[in-house]
Hints:
The structure holds two protein chains of two kinds.
Chain A: E1 2-10, H1 14-25, E2 30-34, H2 39-42, H3 63-73, H4 78-82, H5 93-112, E3 119-120, E4 142-143, E5 158-164, H6 172-186, E6 192-198, H7 211-219, H8 223-238, E7 242-245, H9 254-265, E8 268-271, H10 279-294, E9 298-301, E10 304-311, E11 314-321, E12 326-336, E13 346-349, E14 352-355, E15 384-385, E16 388-389, E17 416-418, H11 428-431, H12 434-456
Parallel strand pairs in A: 1-2, 1-12, 2-9, 5-6, 5-7, 7-8, 12-17
Antiparallel strand pairs in A: 3-4, 10-11, 11-12, 13-14, 15-16
Helix pairs in contact in A: 1-10, 1-12, 3-5, 5-12, 8-9
Chain B: H1 3-16, H2 27-33, H3 47-52, H4 59-67, H5 78-81, H6 89-93, H7 100-114, H8 121-133, H9 143-157, E1 172-175, H10 177-183, H11 185-197, E2 202-203, H12 213-218, H13 221-238, E3 242-245, H14 248-260, E4 267-269, H15 270-278, H16 280-287, E5 296-300, H17 304-307, H18 313-324, E6 328-330, H19 351-368, E7 372-375, H20 378-390, E8 396-399, H21 400-409
Parallel strand pairs in B: 1-2, 1-3, 3-4, 5-6, 5-7, 7-8
Helix pairs in contact in B: 10-11, 11-21, 15-16, 19-20
Amino acid sequence: MKLKSDILVIGGGMAGLVAGIIAAESGATTLLLRKGQSATAYSSGAIDIIGYLPEATEPFSAPSEGLAAIAGLYPLHPYGVVGYGDNVAPEEVVDTIIERVRDSVVWLKDRLEGTIASVVGDFQSNFSPISILGTTKPTCLVQTTMNPGDIHEREDSVLLFAGITGYPDFNPSSASKTYLEDRIAMGQPPHKVGFCMTKIMPFGKSFNISSIEIARHLDHKGSIETLAEQIDVQVKRIGATHVAIPPVLGIRHALKSKLELEKAIGAEVFELLGFPPSIPGLRLQLALEEVYTKAGGKLLAGHEAISSSRKGKTINSILARSPRREISIDTKAIILATGKYIGGGIAGNENGIRETVFDIMTVTGEYHSAKDIVPSRVTHRLEISPMGQQIQTCGLSIDPQFRPIREDGLEWAENVFAAGAVLAGYNYSVEKSGLGVALTSGYGAAMNAVDRIKGVA
Amino acid sequence: MNEDEAYEYVKSTLKKEMITPYHSDELTIVSSVSRCINCGLCINHCPVVAAIGVDRFSGPRSIAVELSRSPPEYWSTADKIYLCTGCGTCKEVCPKNVDIPEIVNLIRARIFEHRPDLVPKGFMLVNEIITEHGLAFEPWADKEEKEESRDMRLEHLGLPFIPDIVKEKADVLFYPGCQAEERAQEVREAAKVILDLFGVDFTLLNEFSCCSLPSRLMGNEIKARELAKRLKNKIKKLGVSKVVTTCAGCTSNLADLAERDDWGIPTYHLLEFLAEEIGYARLTQALKGKRLSESVHISVHDPCHLIRHTSRRIMDYAMDILALIPGVKVTASEAHDSCCGGGGMVSYHSKDVADAVVKENLIALEETGAERLVTPCPLCTAQIESNLFKSGSSIEVDDLTVFLAQKLIKE
Lengths: 457, 411
Ligand SMILES: Cc1cc2nc3c(=O)[nH]c(=O)nc-3n(C[C@H](O)[C@H](O)[C@H](O)COP(=O)(O)OP(=O)(O)OC[C@H]3O[C@@H](n4cnc5c(N)ncnc54)[C@H](O)[C@@H]3O)c2cc1C
Ligand code: SF4
Ligand code: SF4
């Protein structure tokens, strides 16, 4: 089998799909290969831009503040790289970073508008959605269904945590305790919190039920009414102004369900941040795929890029494998968005850490070679510092155009760009920056790839 | 005790413990389980979980992390392991591509060997038919009746009859698969019409025999290997240079066998053969001038064995080819690539599960407003057709090969 496309994206998570959308919208023929789903679908679906600096305990109140700090302290951080370019003066770097990240956030919000994963929040400030454990975390954008509204501002707000009998992921009693304790410590509303159990029975029984079953069930017509009746009683009981439920309001119709519920019970309803694999993560994945295909991009699921062929300074074709066929794909530019250890873009074993498609040089967070780092030798307790676990920061080092570089500092190939978790130099779990880095780098890498093929043509 | 004796001794104790050592060609499957990171992404996509819930079918993650972990206790998975349709959805979304459908076959093979009492009765009936006739369906008792049925179908569809050809050294072996050989004869005939129209030098088997997939799915590994060997011998004797089939299950299974058993020749679904060997130019030419009076609004179902077990590209070919036919409007169904419920032989013992799985497809299909559903597999055709009929739907179902043949010969 043979195929051809102007731009070939390898990887179908946040970074790959964002890059694919940009490429397809530019008019380039775009093909995206995906061997599986990954960290993006797995995530809780809240889009973090930057929450913390490594070693810091206080979160940033706004992404711009965090980005400025990053630019100063970690110039090689993927966000740092965004600020470099031929026409950027050194004193403009910080502003350029902030502007480019803001551009990509605004762009993403716009593209997700009207999809099953429409988002709220903006670049001006971080806010703190509540998790199913009753804790909060700083993030930039959450899905509209997860918007806690004015709960932390209203002096008279009362929150009801509504659990589901037989759904083991969420314990509303302990979540409400954790949450209330936090609020009391901060001296901030809500001052009253309650909890209740509801019955949602996708298959007529209230035990051993999973998120996906509940979400599918609530997508069906009529099932929200039954839930509304149960919650209504409890809302009246404690005088709740807000109701928190686990992130299971639906896959296709979650927003509609939220609005229907609110209308029926007269209180604001929002989903909590949940454990992976979460339904909001699934919604984000599906929504991005839809935007990509609507933009004219071609998605080829179940295909893994396994090798490539080089012509001079460029890679001109990729071999992809499906379960029982092979396809050779000719292309003008490649975006490598293969993720890290979950996605499979970076793998580590007894021979060290390597990049899996092209075998490009890997580096650590300090930009030393990661070639000889053996993950099983760095699982020692001492390896986990406030900076995070070091293998989380390993990956590819890139030039200002997002092209992976070799040992001599030059690009590995003129037409290969990289984005997302495959990059080195940041630790998403410590910084709370995962989907944000994927978004910004996917956006930037694709812009450069588009410029290149337009220039070449 | 020398090494060989020790090996034999250990083997005999394994038998007592109800363990069958893995074949060397199964080792990649077994090792794929160890890649599972227990993430649970697969559960969100499994059509059986969607249809009946995790309480009744614990789902692909449970197969990877629980059901497959202890060979001596494989028997205890019997209430779950037979409910997997083998659709491959989990494997495709899995970040580590854990080969769940094959693990399921592997477990079923061991239950079949050590605890045949736990194998669903429906499987045993098919097993007897296969053992007796080398076919997955009871063959027609009366050859003339079979021909009559064939002719009636051809007449109804307006297709000409192309006599069977069996010869050595033809370019292509056309392999219809059991369903088209015995039941959906129109598919077999339609493929011959198409091959003939494009002047393909093809042959049939002189005596048709099963590709072995049903035996694998029910766990009769010995029978499966025997049937595979029988087929290989026939193909080698004919000396063909390619095999073409119209069945999705045969497509993936033949590809597997060709690789595992070193056939040394490529295997294709007819759609791939048309796209890659005949070419869209000749197809367009052949479709030109056929005054296709009526336009038709269709939707398409993607068989699991083509998209997830072989390559999604094959359905791209299907869409390309349909786009060449004048007057055909295609509306995609939201569940176009969701399992029809016919996989894994689930319908042979748990019909309610198979029917619950296909229900989602039926709802999505009605929403398209299409008058016809087309799919390149006679088994998917039969499964969806009977469910649509039962639900009182007016949507008709065609195998894509038949649909295409009709368009190609229409004056
Ligand atoms: C449990 C968990 C929770 C998280 N929660 C959050 C959160 O709440 N907010 C947040 O902002 N971030 C979160 N993150 C981080 C964030 O999800 C990731 O940083 C981000 O999704 C990375 O996106 P990506 O596109 O780079 O990679 P991935 O999403 O991992 O995608 C990689 C893709 O590449 C494909 N691929 C790999 N190799 C090949 C190949 N050879 N051929 C074809 N395809 C290939 C994979 O199949 C996959 O589709 C979380 C991460 C985890 C693990
Ligand atoms: S093969 Fe299909 S039915 Fe079986 S576990 Fe996987 S997704 Fe479910
Ligand atoms: S089989 Fe794959 S998708 Fe399922 S839990 Fe394991 S790693 Fe995750």
